[in-house]
Amino acid sequence: MRFWAKIVSSLVPMFAASIALGQAGAMPGLASDLQGMRNNRSLASVGVLAGSVRDASNRPVKDARVEVRLLGSAQTVAAAYTSGDGQFEIDNLPLGNYEVVITHGLAQDRQQIAVEGSGAPLRFRLSEASTADAKAGTSSTVSVAEMKVPKKARQHFEKASEALKKQNLDEAARQAEEALAIYPRYAQALTLRGILAMDHGQLQQALNDFQAAINSDPGYAMAYIATGAAYNAIGQYDLAAQSLDRGQELDPRSWQAHFEMSKAQLGRQDLDAALREVNRAEELASAPFAPIHLVRAHIYLSQKNYPEATAELEAYLQKAPQDPGAADARKTLDK
After folding, report:
1. Containing H/E element for 233?
2. Is the sign of the CA dihedral 190, 191, 194, 196 positive or negative?
3. How many CB atoms are located within 10 Å of the residue 115 CB?
4. pTM of this prediction?
5. Using CA atoms in the order 233, 235, 238, 239, what is the torsion angle rounded to 10 degrees?
6. Beta partners for 54?
7. Cystine design at 216: which of 130, 187, 191, 329 (Cβ 3.0–4.6 Å)?
């Protein structure tokens, strides 16, 4: 099975467009798989958490990540991002004690709270120095690990990226291997090799490469995102969500991370979270991406919202009639 029917350019920041992690071809059996998903993972809806995030000058902070963790544990039970006016709201939280962690680039603030229904809005303030450094945690940053890569290895990787743009996957693979022969710990080249292994259905090899990339550069977001895509492909949605959660921390504006997270949450049957993630992916994507409609259609199908599901399936087929997932989409639409 080909898990990724095609890969478009820009796996890493030096690429020009965006890589289609989990493209339609990565989910050829999604319609049938969804029929067997369990519906017993949802938590009781008993509380609402809302608040705002501002900087030292009292300006709203947009796109700050809001995580709700069990108190005394690293387990994240809910997450969201602040809107343009710095506001956030998270519904369906069970009553209990939590730690709320706000992350914006390298800046972070946290509070311990008790959810007892609809409490007073929380207020977070990030220091001026921290918000100024926020971009340091985005995909545009050159990490210390990347700076150690020899020039010749970089040159081979640049050739691999150019070959990938032209859909010349064999040449991309060859150039990636050349880069790794010079510097075996090259995180970006390891991730690229893993992605190409995924395209050939070699999931274990891909996961090995992604883990090696993370070991080499723990701050490289795409390695975590690709790991999440691999786990999604084999139906290990909890592991996918765990890896994607870290990828989103490192690069909150990665549409690929949100798209893959929507699939992970769909697999976990957290439908509200899945819908938020796929909508966020669409907001952040630099160009229309047809499989977003396909994932959203299956979310609506699971919610038994058939009119919306029909509209999304039709939109997907209109934009990508030749995609590998189109045949299944037509069958689902007929039903």
Report:
1. helix 221-233
2. negative
3. 19
4. 0.65
5. -50
6. 60, 125
7. 187
